[in-house]
Specification:
The chain has 373 residues and is an alpha+beta fold. It has three domains: 89 residues, Uridine Diphospho-n-acetylenolpyruvylglucosamine Reductase, domain 2 (2-Layer Sandwich); 148 residues, Uridine Diphospho-n-acetylenolpyruvylglucosamine Reductase, domain 3 (2-Layer Sandwich), CATH 3.30.465.10; 116 residues, Alpha-Beta Complex (Uridine Diphospho-n-acetylenolpyruvylglucosamine Reductase, domain 1), CATH 3.90.78.10. The protein has nine helices and 21 strands. Strand 7 and strand 8 form a beta hairpin. The longest helix has 19 residues. The chain starts with a strand and ends with a strand. It catalyses: UDP-N-acetyl-alpha-D-muramate + NADP(+) = UDP-N-acetyl-3-O-(1-carboxyvinyl)-alpha-D-glucosamine + NADPH + H(+). Pfam families: FAD_binding_4, MurB_C. Its cofactor is FAD.
């Protein structure tokens, strides 16, 4: 039986569409097509909001009736259980790209990789190395999205959000977003804020990129770390590097049927890192030097991909419908017929194997709905 469709009048107010085109409401609506994993069961009810006013109205309605609420953007960081979601799923499909000099404002529903392309076309620097990341703009501050030496926390100035506790729209400056590695205030309080808009301050460097911080990008481009290159060239290089790792969405490539990096890079205290280093040398030989990068608070960040590979989970690992990507060990993938439980079984196997080998517990990066590792 297919999803039931009915129309819901759009809310009144300044942001309302005066043509009163109805908001689509679906019941028993498949959610798998709204995620990059293409996994998960249906939602009891699915609303699609195309204005901030509709987003706020849907959230208020759910909160007022005590209905569980699942907010969906691009679905690129979401693992939904096979039983689906018993409540209201709200898909944010708002549009808005406003560039004023070097100041950028994006509606939460804007496709992130398209927005990056437009800033590069405008000759601005600051997010060019975040090209190709799937998902919507509203998710970027939640996860403090980062890749290839850039994080959005370095360019985000403000986040406009609906505060479900105070029932008000609030503007939160960067300093109050509590950004850290793949984390933020919004991620720490998942049931409080619904991001509506994100504001950025970019740089006019005459068409050049921000200084390249990532060794692989600089090496690929034949320059030293810290140098600037044409922003368009930096973007194209990052897209090529991501595509080579199955990290650019492609319906024909099952390596991209994933959430990108499934695990965050572990950040270890000094004692934890020394214990890990000793186990690595014991397992792999005294000459072993695991990847190590400085992290906040004097801690050390190491590579989840390295840990997974050295624990024996190589590219393409698995025999079932959920396997490690053939291009990158950090991506768990749906080969076409997987269920969420298949994916979680693989994730748990990897976590257990890495913990046994190196004493380090991996943490999943995607948000889980109705399931957990």
């Amino acid at each position: 039986m297919g999803p039931h469709v009915r129309s819901v009048p759009r809310p009144s107010g300044e942001c309302a569409d005066r043509t009163l085109v109805p908001v689509q409401e679906l019941h028993d609506a498949p959610l798998a097509p709204l995620t990059t994993f293409r996994l998960g069961g249906p939602a009891s009810r699915l609303l699609t909001a195309t204005t901030d006013a509709e987003v706020i109205e849907a959230v208020r309605e759910a909160d007022g009736s005590g209905t569980p609420l699942l907010v969906i953007g691009g679905g690129s960081n979401l693992v939904i259980g096979d039983k689906g979601f018993d409540g209201t799923a709200l898909r944010i499909a708002t549009k808005g790209f406003a560039l004023n000099g070097t100041t950028l404002e994006l509606a939460a529903g804007e496709i992130w990789t398209d927005a990056v392309a437009r800033t590069v076309e405008a000759g601005l620097a600051g997010i060019e190395c975040l090209a190709g990341i799937p998902g919507s703009a509203g998710a970027t501050p939640i996860q403090n999205v980062g890749a290839y030496g850039q994080e959005v926390s370095s360019t985000v100035t403000e986040v406009v959000a609906y505060d479900r506790h105070t029932e008000e729209t609030v503007t939160i400056p960067n300093a109050d977003c509590a950004f850290s590695y793949r984390h933020s205030r919004f991620k720490a309080e998942p049931d409080r804020f619904v991001v509506l808009r994100v504001r950025f301050e970019l740089e006019d460097a005459g068409g050049l990129s921000a200084p390249l911080r990532y060794a692989e990008t600089a090496r690929t481009m034949g320059v030293e770390q810290g140098e600037r290159v044409p922003a368009a060239a930096a973007r194209e290089t990052v897209l090529a590097l991501r595509a080579g790792k199955g990290m650019v969405l492609d319906p024909e490539d099952h390596d991209s049927w994933s959430a990108g990096s499934f695990f965050t890079n572990p950040i270890l205290e000094d004692a934890e890192y020394e214990a890990f280093l000793a186990r690595a040398k014991d397992r792999l030989g005294p000459g072993t030097t695991p990847p190590a990068f400085p992290a906040d608070g004097g801690r050390v960040k190491t590579s989840a991909a390295w840990l997974i590979d050295k624990a024996g989970f190589t590219k393409g690992y698995g025999t079932g419908p959920a396997r490690i990507s053939t291009k990158h060990t950090l991506a768990l993938t749906n080969r076409g017929e997987a269920t969420t439980e298949d994916l979680l079984a693989l994730a748990r196997e990897v976590v257990a194997g890495v913990r046994e080998a190196f004493g380090v517990t991996l943490v999943n990066e995607p948000v889980t709905v109705g399931v957990s590792l």
